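To whoever picks this up:

The nightly regression suite flagged Isopentenyl phosphate kinase as changed. Nothing in the input moved, so I suspect the structure step. Input below, exactly as stored in the fixture:
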Amino acid sequence: MELNHQESRSRSIRCIVKLGGAAITCKNELEKIHDENLEIVASHLRQAMMEGSAPSKVIGMDWSKRPGSSEIACDVDVLGDQESSEFSKFVVVHGAGSFGHFQASRSGVHKGGLEKPIVKAGFVATRISVTNLNLEIVRALAREGIPTIGMSPFACGWSTSKRDVASADLSTVAKTIDSGFVPVLHGDAVLDNILGCTILSGDVIIRHLADHLKPEYVVFLTDVLGVYDRPPSEPDAVLLKEISVGQDGSWKVVSPVLEHTDKKVDYSVAAHDTTGGMETKISEAAMIAKLGIDVYIVKAATTHSQRALNGQLRDNVPEDWLGTIIRFSK
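Regenerated output under the current build:
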């Protein structure tokens, strides 16, 4: 079910945030979360959501045991005296990083073919992995007092047709937001009308959500400062500060002025990345920018990402801000 224009306008979503898999997991260590980054990101998100409200004590909402702990942290007594916190409306989507990609690439889930036992097994294994990560991210944000609800696209009725979104029950997402919660979606293995199954990437999910929820701005949190003209590990790599998107969806680098403006931006994709890496990210970001929504691609857990999440770049971008802005050129 899609949202009608009236519903999407009355919802006034402030921001959709993509937590890049490489930023919140240790990409070269199988199924290992980057705890320090995730903790900082959770704190930044809380501050951004509370902007304009009086600071209040963080009341943790993860009342389950954690590994290595024999007790449950539960502030029920404190909650009795607590006034309700006013959060601005955010939606969080995260990638898989070192979760899910290995299972998907080994079994070929992204290529489809559910009739093959290896693909069916890989579909199950991929979903176990990405939903485990989703739970840990929901818990990390809940510990910061953010009322998060994990929402798996497969379980919420998302499906694709040749990897493009064919159906998505956005009414569930909308009701979750309207009830004062923060939905946390993720890249997922889903059924595909043509291929049988595939991987629906977090970047594609964000574009679909942005199209229907019309947020004020979108932030992609990554493990590098932004988009470069070549792999950032190369010595001459240049950070692209602003990319302009035309009416037809084509894009060009506005700042800095590159010597070879006709040169294609060079991408590098990890061998196990089944979702297209930075190239997918930029093309999806360009489609969001075409809707008139500014997109910021920025390194997670930095002052630069904090400014982007707070919405401080919308009117004026400080000289010392490092990241990439992708915006529509009227």
